Amino acid sequence: FLFVSAVEVKIEVVIPEKERSKEEMSPNGKASPLIYKVNGTARHYHLEEHPIASNPYHNPKDVVEASVCHVKDLENGQMREVDLGCGKALLIKESGEFHAVGHKCPHYGAPLVKGVLSKGRVRCPWHGACFNISTGDIEDFPGLDSLPRFQVKIEKEKVYIRASKQALQTQRRTKMMAKCISLSNYNLSSTNVLIIGAGAAGLVCAETLRQEGFSDRIVMCTMDRHLPYDRPKLSKSMDSHPEQIALRPKEFFRTYDIEVLTEMHVAAVDIKNKTAVFKDGFKMEYNKLLIATGNTPKALSCKGKEVENVFNIRTPEDANRVVKLATSKNVVIVGASFLGMEVAAYLAERAHSVSLVELEEVPFKKFFGERVGRAVMKMFESNRVKFYMQTEVSELREQEGKLKEVVLKSGKVLRADVCVVGVGAVPATGFLKQSGINIDSKGFIAVNKMMQTNIPGVFAAGDAVTFPLALRNNKKVNVPHWQMAHMHGRIAALNMLAHGMEISTVPYLWTAMFGKSIRYAGHGEGFDDVVIQGDLDELKFVAFYTKSDEVVAVASMNYDPIVSKVAEVLSAGRTIRKRDVE
């Protein structure tokens, strides 16, 4: 047992291997073949008839009812996975009341019974998404869908659940959404809401607007060729095709009138005239604007940087190409970042050799601390990854235009058929330089707790912003992670609709390497000590990051659901002291 500020946190350990491998694989939702081209121009929309979704719950044959337990079988604060014959549900008892919802997290299918129940919501043990137990609604991210909710009734001391078979099988529910009222009346070069960027922040913003009943025009534009996709997968499962990692199928965007302009590059924003100017000269007026452009990877600045087969991983095509070129060949990865390490892990069993070059002495030192970094490094070394630390690349050498060798400042020459660069990124905000929107010295867009910039009606979200983090006394921080981008998009949408909603989420992230995950919650920047429990050599540990006397973040491996438990404590606004975890 571990006591965390008067909260008893019992640590249960280890996802069975079977579930763990599923976690790294399953994509978010069903996908369909997907190319949604605008032929390089924004002038041609195809407005199609929208299929009316039929309601599966009206069919009595679709409904199943079963007795699942005795009322005394569950104590308050307990959860149980129950079988209704044609599927399972999660039965929860809290404050004397029973609730039943889907048993799998819609994000990657984690068993929610292993999650954390606290004050009317359940938090996923893997990636921290939170669901309301009364409604099933998603309240914190990652993922887009909510849980189905099932009827519970008590008769003669027995608990019965009544559920739709379809909901039991899909284990997900897309919230009701509005549609656009008469798109055909629109001037093509003006929109009510313009979203620049089609990552998690942009998509969640668009979906939230529709969920809240917004029925005016929404246009998203992206430089990408694809509709929004699960970007973390690019380095975690590199041979995924775009349609396998699509966040929503093409039909979804048609059904809810969310227009997506692909391969469209915004060159400038004219805030006085509320207009976005595209690279091809096309202009689009907006009423409300969300800037969610993410970041741009840094390139190498050494001699030979333009040779062929040197990649930043930006797109599914990049990732696929790297896998193809690396198979049975020599790979050099520059930068022991999350991206660099995940790519190294993915390629380790496919490539002939994988070498990793890094300026620090230990991977992840600034993020996870030296001891955790060393344990991770050991795991990589035992999987044939070779490290070249405290050095950098001085030259890339070619043969017939293609990469042949990577020369290090230490003088070492590494054979290389392909090189992946993961040396950090800069915010993709260059196009805003003359706009009047506040941008700091590093290029980040400054927003308040409502994701508003200094310009009325202009919001920003995701990797390109700094925002006040409640958890760290409203210090302005940049949190370039997937869960946070989702939440930014939601908060921006609610405030476009004048809800006055402030952000207060706890950052939550994960990395996956060799079928193992490190989970992390909080914001550890500037930590001055790490308290470790468990066994680093066995890769079964929890690390608490402290600043003076306070726990500011936690990381774990094979120690679920401890990170979700700590996230819930922090989310409730409680302080965890160093002495509570020592």
UniProtKB/TrEMBL annotation:
<keyword id="KW-0001">2Fe-2S</keyword>
<dbReference type="InterPro" id="IPR050446">
    <property type="entry name" value="FAD-oxidoreductase/Apoptosis"/>
</dbReference>
<keyword id="KW-0496">Mitochondrion</keyword>
<dbReference type="InterPro" id="IPR023753">
    <property type="entry name" value="FAD/NAD-binding_dom"/>
</dbReference>
<dbReference type="Pfam" id="PF00355">
    <property type="entry name" value="Rieske"/>
</dbReference>
<feature type="domain" description="Rieske">
    <location>
        <begin position="66"/>
        <end position="161"/>
    </location>
</feature>
<dbReference type="InterPro" id="IPR036188">
    <property type="entry name" value="FAD/NAD-bd_sf"/>
</dbReference>
<keyword id="KW-0274">FAD</keyword>
<dbReference type="GO" id="GO:0005739">
    <property type="term" value="C:mitochondrion"/>
</dbReference>
<keyword id="KW-0285">Flavoprotein</keyword>
<protein>
    <recommendedName>
        <fullName>Apoptosis-inducing factor 3</fullName>
    </recommendedName>
</protein>
<keyword id="KW-0408">Iron</keyword>
<comment type="function">
    <text>Induces apoptosis through a caspase dependent pathway. Reduces mitochondrial membrane potential.</text>
</comment>
<dbReference type="GO" id="GO:0016651">
    <property type="term" value="F:oxidoreductase activity, acting on NAD(P)H"/>
</dbReference>
<keyword id="KW-0249">Electron transport</keyword>
<dbReference type="GO" id="GO:0097194">
    <property type="term" value="P:execution phase of apoptosis"/>
</dbReference>
<dbReference type="InterPro" id="IPR036922">
    <property type="entry name" value="Rieske_2Fe-2S_sf"/>
</dbReference>
<dbReference type="InterPro" id="IPR016156">
    <property type="entry name" value="FAD/NAD-linked_Rdtase_dimer_sf"/>
</dbReference>
<dbReference type="Pfam" id="PF07992">
    <property type="entry name" value="Pyr_redox_2"/>
</dbReference>
<dbReference type="InterPro" id="IPR017941">
    <property type="entry name" value="Rieske_2Fe-2S"/>
</dbReference>
<keyword id="KW-0560">Oxidoreductase</keyword>
<comment type="similarity">
    <text>Belongs to the FAD-dependent oxidoreductase family.</text>
</comment>
<keyword id="KW-0479">Metal-binding</keyword>
<dbReference type="GO" id="GO:0046872">
    <property type="term" value="F:metal ion binding"/>
</dbReference>
<dbReference type="InterPro" id="IPR028202">
    <property type="entry name" value="Reductase_C"/>
</dbReference>
<keyword id="KW-0813">Transport</keyword>
<dbReference type="GO" id="GO:0051537">
    <property type="term" value="F:2 iron, 2 sulfur cluster binding"/>
</dbReference>
<keyword id="KW-0053">Apoptosis</keyword>
<keyword id="KW-0411">Iron-sulfur</keyword>
<dbReference type="Pfam" id="PF14759">
    <property type="entry name" value="Reductase_C"/>
</dbReference>
